[in-house]
Amino acid sequence: MRYEELFSHYGYLMLLVGSLGEGMPIMLFGGFAAHRGWLVLMPTVILAGALGNAAAQGLWFFAARYAGEKILEKRADWARNVKHINGWVKRWEGLAVVGARFIPGMSSAAVIAIALSDISATRFVVLNIIGALLWATSLGMVGYLLGQAVVALLGDIETYEKPVAMTLLVATVVWIVWTHALPTWRMRRGPV
Q: Does residue 37 come out as left (phi exceeding 0), alpha (psi in the -120 to 50 range) or beta?
């Protein structure tokens, strides 16, 4: 199966699943794939990324709201991050809901802090959808522009598209392992 076929069959699913986590690299890849003609940027890449991002943020919000402060008892790093972000959330509640997803590594802590604040669930859902659409649109467009930049720099991209696509996919996997799997493994392993 060629790249074009692979991405046209599974690309949107990859975007949806990838954007459930820290999805910046996968959204950049989605924009690049749209530039190459493997996917459609507007509206499909944007909607797949926004849906995954909004679902993940919503899941974190409602889980943290349900668990309350107990969610911080087992994760000291989360508690530190939430404490650090709390003042920001209290001052700029709406901006925090929309903008926290743009800060790598702080999104989960911000959503937990937001869930433990006084924001109404309805207000969170509306702001979450707006934020997810802005996030997916901006990262998808940057990925698309990255594709244009590669063409401008290298000319005939046909010979480079596989290495560039693979680099973006590998960067996505490394990013997920670095930001999610390693901290979880270290926490479970305990002090050395």
A: left
